[in-house]
Amino acid sequence: MLFLNPSTYIAAVLFLLFMGFIFMGILDGFTKAAQDVSPAVEFFKFFFLPVWVMVPLLTMKGLAEERRSGTLETLLTAPVSAAEVVFAKFGAAYLLYMLMWLATLGFIAVLHHFSKDARFLDLGPLAGGYLFVAVTGLLYVAVGTLASALARSQAVAAVLAFAGLFALTLGLTWASGMTFVQQESLHQVRSALESADVFRHLEDFTRGVVDTRQIVFYLTGTALTLILSILGVEAKVLHS
Question: Domain count of the chain?
Answer without folding.
Answer: 1
